TrEMBL record:
Naturally occurring in which organism (per UniProt): Streptosporangium fragile
Domain N,N-dimethylformamidase beta subunit-like C-terminal: 53-384
Coiled coil: none
InterPro entries: Class_I_gatase-like, DMFA2_C
Protein name listed in UniProt: N,N-dimethylformamidase beta subunit-like C-terminal domain-containing protein
Pfam families (UniProt xref): DMFA2_C
Length: 608
């Protein structure tokens, strides 16, 4: 008497129609009741009847974009069919994707020839159809917690099926933030290409998921057949178009690690399966970068633990090393160099339960966009934890809108002068020492590398000229211009006098520029021996140069800019200085700090 049903598509637009196909194991008439419910609220939006082997649902234009389930009941039997209602036009900056490909991959797991699982069983299927019952959320409901949390938390989001991303460039263009939630393991090349292009062009992605983008699959039969051999030898595409072979994204012959999209991978992650899945409830994250905006408002300090149970049965991680107690991504596994590790969980003991490894929560930039990853399957089901709730809000709020401003990248170390030389950040501390650290968004420690030579402002040329080698140039408190090679054992050399009361120094095209406490701006041409007045400093308290332009932090708390012209020129207001009184620049970013303040950076663009 059991009734079975499936939908012709995993999503339908508001105001559209979705057709369902039904079968029954007996000869009894194929008729019964159907109810359609919004999974996010359990609210029924339709009650009616079906009769015969097909039934069409007219989707009201007023139904919210969400995940829905159609419950077909005949006698004492019933079945559920899940589908997404897409927004007819974007009504939110946030788009939440539902992992229908992963759900279909697990459908009828263990049944010979019916599922791409289990992984190494020779009876697994290489091709499965979306035209069959099942393919809905797994019993663990990894996605459900966040779906139910969003509305009450104040977030009205639009939904899509993961399959909608396969040719999703137009769909994604209407959104600011794509959210991946739960367990989104299977991605087609079209899905990945669309999402990567979206991010590179300035969109953002938040991955509240684990084991993300692990297997590549292909679509055939107008998108209704999912192909995943899991084996390059068996897949005929391996000799035709190797990049579309259905193996792990990181494996040959695809060789496209998912780290390039998510920053992390299950290769370095951990898993606990079967009877051992309960061990995930014992694990927590450890904070590694508490000053980062992701932790704002959590009151968590370095080394604090949070999110017990958020570490799901599968996690993702990047390869990293500890440098002075700070985790630093190595990039050896394909993780982008901009990846910043925010929290870690050491799960190497899980080798007894499935796969030992780590979990690394982080954030990085990809082109003009930003990607955050929680790196765990069960994040959305732990939103009752205050820290998990706050972090999720911070990510959604920041990445769903255009944001510019200063971002903390570590401790300021009470530096009174900054410059970048040989891609390393140098600072002169309040104690008179010279310190160094890599230019990175990671919260690295400063290392002492000699004497600061009494320097109060520093600059470095972009490239050497006949009169100015690449190195550290400084203004001292007793009005001298000094120079030092960047090597470990170098010493400072006096080059000559400097304008009195220097507070800022910049080097542009071999020409030195100095700002003084009295409000003057001075320049020293490459071949000259005397400083020449160049107008007003605009009340600068710090000065730097980048890409043929001067930047100054002024006494009013603003960053201003002007071209390095020989005579007087207007300073143009650019953005807030946010308390920065020490300034340098590198690779398109301003870098600054102040006594007792953290080290920050930002793009030199107007505030949004």
């Amino acid at each position: 008497m059991t009734v079975h049903a499936y939908a012709e598509s995993t999503s339908c637009v508001q105001g559209g129609a979705l057709r369902f196909h039904l079968t029954r194991a007996s000869r009894a008439p194929l008729r019964g009741a159907v109810r359609v419910e919004d999974v996010a609220t359990d609210r029924a939006v339709f009650d009616g009847e079906f009769s015969g082997p097909s039934w069409t649902l007219g989707v009201s234009p007023g139904w919210p974009s969400s995940l829905y389930r159609a419950v077909f009941a005949a006698g004492e039997s019933s079945c559920e069919v899940h589908f997404v209602v897409r927004a007819a036009r974007p009504s939110s900056p946030i788009l939440l994707s539902m992992p229908f490909p992963t759900w279909q991959a697990y459908n009828r797991a263990g049944v010979p020839g019916e599922s791409v699982y289990w992984t190494e069983q020779p009876t697994r299927a290489a091709r499965v159809s979306f035209h069959r019952p099942g393919g809905g959320p797994p019993p663990e409901r990894w996605e459900e917690g966040m779906i139910r949390w969003l509305g009450p938390a104040g977030y009205d989001v639009d939904y899509c099926s993961g399959l909608d991303l396969h040719e999703g460039r137009e769909l994604l263009s209407g959104y600011r933030l794509l959210v991946i939630n739960g367990h989104d393991e299977y991605w087609s090349a079209g899905m990945r290409d669309s999402v990567e292009e979206f991010i590179r062009r300035g969109g953002n992605m938040a991955v509240f998921s684990g084991n993300t983008c692990w297997w590549q699959f292909r679509l055939e039969d107008d998108g209704r057949t999912m192909v995943c051999y899991r084996d390059a030898v068996a897949d005929p595409m391996a000799t035709v178009e190797p990049g579309l072979t259905t193996v792990e994204w990181s494996s040959a012959p695809v060789n496209r690690p998912e780290n390039g999209l998510t920053g992390v991978s299950f290769r370095r992650g951990a898993g606990t399966w079967g009877p051992y899945m309960r061990h995930m409830e014992e694990e927590s994250y450890t904070v590694r970068f508490p000053e980062h905006w992701v932790f704002e408002g959590t009151k968590l300090g370095e080394g604090a633990t949070f999110g017990r149970g958020a570490i799901g049965y599968e996690t993702d991680a990047c390869d990293f090393v500890e440098v002075d107690g700070v985790p630093v991504a190595t990039g050896r596994d394909g993780t982008p160099p901009s990846f910043v590790i925010l929290a870690t969980a050491d799960l190497r003991h899980w080798h007894r339960y499935g796969q030992g490894g780590m979990a690394t929560m982080g954030v990085f930039t990809l082109g003009a966009g930003t990607v955050f990853t929680a790196s765990t399957v069960n994040w959305g089901n732990t939103l009752h934890d205050p820290a998990v709730d706050r972090i999720t809000r911070n990510v959604l709020d920041r990445l769903s809108r255009r944001v510019s401003g200063w971002e903390i990248i570590g401790t300021g170390g009470s530096m009174r002068a900054l410059t970048v030389c040989d891609a390393r950040l140098y600072g002169v501390g309040a104690d008179g020492g010279l310190y160094r650290r890599d230019v990175s968004g990671q919260n690295l420690r400063w290392r002492r590398t000699g004497s600061g030579g009494g320097v109060v402002a520093m600059a470095t040329p972009r490239e050497a000229t006949a009169t100015r080698p690449v190195g550290l140039y400084g203004l001292t408190g007793d009005d001298r211009l000094v120079y030092r090679d960047p090597g470990e054992d170098a010493s400072w050399t006096v080059l000559g006098d400097a304008p009195p009361g220097g507070v800022g120094l910049a080097l542009v095209d071999g020409e030195l520029w100095a700002a003084t406490a009295s409000g003057g701006l001075w320049r020293l041409p490459p071949e000259a021996a005397e400083w020449v007045p160049a107008g007003s400093s605009g009340d600068a308290v710090a000065l730097t140069g980048m890409n043929g332009r001067l930047y100054a932090a002024d006494a009013a708390g603003r960053v201003r800019t002007r071209l390095p012209l020989p005579g007087a020129a207007e300073w143009t207001d650019l953005c807030t200085a946010s308390g920065v009184t020490v300034l340098t620049a590198h690779a398109g970013r301003l870098i600054g700090t102040a006594p007792g303040a953290p080290l920050r950076w930002r793009d030199p663009v107007p505030d949004l």
